[in-house]
Amino acid sequence: MHWNVALRSAGLWVILSLAAGQLTEQEKSTIIDLHNELRSKVQPSATFMQKVVWDEALRVVAEAYAAKCIWDHNPQLEELSMGENLFVGTGTFNATKALLDWFGEHVDYDFETNNCPEDKMCGHYTQMVWADSNRIGCATHSCDTLEGLDFKKATLLVCDYYPTMCSKTLYNTTWTVIQYLLCYKMQLSIIWAHIQIL
Ligand SMILES: *[C@@H]1O[C@H](CO)[C@@H](O)[C@H](O)[C@H]1NC(C)=O
Ligand SMILES: *[C@@H]1O[C@H](CO)[C@@H](O)[C@H](O)[C@H]1NC(C)=O
Fold first, then answer.
1. Residue 56 pLDDT > 90, yes or no?
2. Which residues approach ligand 1 with their CB closer than 6 A?
3. Taking 80 as the threshold, does the pLDDT of residue 7 lie above it?
4. From ligand 2's centre to the CA of 172, what distance in Å?
5. What number of other Cβ atoms are within 10 A of residue 64's Cβ?
6. Which of 45, 48, 171 to mutate to test the pocket of ligand 2 (most atoms within 8 A of CB)?
7. Mean pLDDT across the stretch 16-39?
8. What's domain 25-184's architecture?
9. Residue bearing the CA closest to ligand 1, atom 12
10. Which of 109, 119, 129, 173 is the 20 to 30 Å CA partner of 39?
């Protein structure tokens, strides 16, 4: 009797996690390893680039948001000092393909102006390579339909990045390091001001 209940709930759990389309440990490693590999390959080469690590708190935020099946960014990004990349696809989900798709935008990105032509996208690429965004948490969700996109039975990938307070900082100038230190010093002084008020 007890076994029966346990087995049934275990079965239900498997069905629920499949329905949610959760990332496997293998996929999580692929996401981190490939980010680091691609970050090490930027052109011009980086002199100031942090290694990224997986972050469970970001994964939780990404998972809750992915479950909403909305093809648009989480409106709380700025409030949470987070950046976000989204990918949607039908068929078998392939994390490598999603990341290479984002990174592929580098062909339209101009390092000197830190921008791309108006009719092109480069925001996914720049989010992947911001020097200060060193924590990533991602989640997938199987969506029957999506709000804002005419896709059926698609897998939505949400990757959240932290921090982005000092992003838009380029990654290979001496100025970047100074800019970065100044930016974080400013953040620290804000934190300090709060502590003093408290
Ligand atoms: C996933 O996509 C990558 C890049 O397009 C490809 O090389 C790889 O074979 C794909 N993996 C699977 C299991 O389809
Ligand atoms: C970045 O570094 C590369 C070589 O490491 C150099 O050629 C390039 O001029 C640098 N770019 C800037 C903007 O400093």
1. yes
2. 94, 96-97, 100
3. no
4. 6
5. 13
6. 45
7. 84
8. 3-Layer(aba) Sandwich (3.40)
9. 94
10. 119
